[in-house]
Amino acid sequence: MEWLTYIVAGSAIGLGLGVGIMWLLDRLRLRGIRRRADEILAQSRQQAEQILRDAEVRAREDWQRCRDDWERQLQESRAELRERERRLQQHQDALTKRQHLLKRKEQSLELTQKQLAERQEALAAREKELEALLAQQSLKLQEIAGLSREEASAMLLQRLEQELSAEINQRITRFEERFKNLAEERAREILSTAIQRYAAGHTAETTVSTVDLPSDEMKGRIIGREGRNIRTFEKITGVDVIIDDTPGVVVVSSFDAVRREVARQALKKLIADGRIHPARIEEVVRETQIEIERHIMEAGRAAVQEANIGHVSDKIVQLLGRLKFRTSYSQNVLQHSIEVALLCGLMAEELGLDGTLARRCGLLHDIGKAADHDMEGGHPEVGAELARRYGETRQEVLHAILCHHDDIKSGHIYTVLVAAADAISASRPGARRETLEKYVKRMQELEALALTFPGVEQAYAIQAGRELRVIAQANKTTDQDAIRLSRDIARAIEQQLEYPGDIKVTVIREIRAVDYAR
């Protein structure tokens, strides 16, 4: 047990020494920390004092800089004010001089007016004296000549008319040309500008469409047993299918372009599918009709967007789309309407009018052609009624649709623009094609009309009816009569015939002397 006591005593002594040593180390570490903290605090105070001094220096520099800038701006403002005062003084001096000048002009004007009044009074007195002298001289002349004033005037006028007939005709021709040039100069400028800025291709439609066949064996399948397939197809589509000896082609004929297009597309699908029987024909035709209706709406929306006329109802869009399948004198009516719309917009903008409204009038002017076969009346009346029914409220648009063919007297400028653009689109070369019978009839009417005038020996319509050559009898007409004859024939053509564009009338009078040397 004694050794255990030693161990406990040694442990207690060691623990005491350890605690003392730890306490001593803590005291030493605490003194070092305090000393380090004092050093950091002293450095921080020095840095703060240095920062404060630097800030004071910068503040003084900034204040000095601001003061220099303010003094400079103040000097500039004072200089600008002095310059303005100088300019105002100069302007005031100029106004004062102008006022004095105006006063002098007013005094001079008053003096001139007084002088003019005196001269007018003197002239009035002189006129009275001259009238009295002329009356006396007229009486003396009547006594000497033995003729009254009316008889002398008639004789004088008759002689002057005989002597000056040639000069009168020349002057009439010259004045007509000058006034015509002056009157048409502005219109020609506007029209030429519009035509140059707009150009469109021309499309010609026919009443038949052709469908290519992969082989002639397909013709029998299209006809079907005892013709049931072709009868079903014609009954559902409302077209005529012509199958003849022409190899590899089937012709679809109809005056309704929408039906013809539905039939053509449906027949192409049936040929590609190969299954041709009445039930399949009904199904394909129904699908094709839905596709064509969708295509019609897309074509109408594209036309509205291209013409940039704003919002229109879906019914009007549908009618516009149907115009794509309508032709007039072989010209596509939808393309014609778009062309008229753009031409109207260009001309309206040249004249300072509303271009959007003009384009709206032009695009909708032939909308009645989409339904004129379903309603009574011409396409202007039908179009105006449909546009009013489907939400068109602008009176300018309705009036342009109703009156663009001059059936009713026009009183709106936009109607005049639509009529002009319609004529440009319809009459320029390549836009429309006439039938041979109508073309020949128009040529014959031109020549027959010219032959009705006295002194005309022969008449020839040339250049597709754009010019009429008239051969006058040289022994019955003079050169001045030829000028009058060309003008009279041109007026008669304007009043009695219908024709596209202009017709040039050329009267030729010549004398040929023929002899033979034997």
CATH-level-4 superfamily name of one domain: K Homology domain, type 1
Count the helices. How many?
14
The CA-CA distance between the termini, in Å, is: 190 Å
How would you write the strand order of the largest sheet? Answer: 1-3-2
Are there runs of 5+ residues with pLDDT below 50, and where? Answer: 198-206, 429-434
CATH structural class of one domain: Alpha Beta
How many E-type strands? Answer: 8
* Overall pLDDT level: 79
Using the coordinates shown, work out and report the CATH topology of one domain: Ribosomal Protein S8, Chain: A, domain 1
Strand-and-helix sequence, N→C?
Answer: HHEHHEEHHHEEHHHHHHEEHE
What percentage of amino acids are in beta strands?
5-15%
Helix % is over 70%
The largest β sheet comes out as: 3 strands, antiparallel
Envelope shape? flat
> What Rg, in angstroms, do the CA atoms define?
51 Å
Question: How would you characterize this protein structure?
Answer:
There is one protein chain. This protein starts with a helix and ends in a 10-residue tail after the last strand. The longest helix has 144 residues. 70% of the residues lie in helices and 7% in strands. Among the domains are: 76 residues; 84 residues, 2-Layer Sandwich (Ribosomal Protein S8, Chain: A, domain 1); 73 residues, K homology (KH) domain (GMP Synthetase, Chain A, domain 3, 2-Layer Sandwich). It is mainly alpha-helical and 518 residues long. α2 crosses α8 and α4 packs parallel to α6.
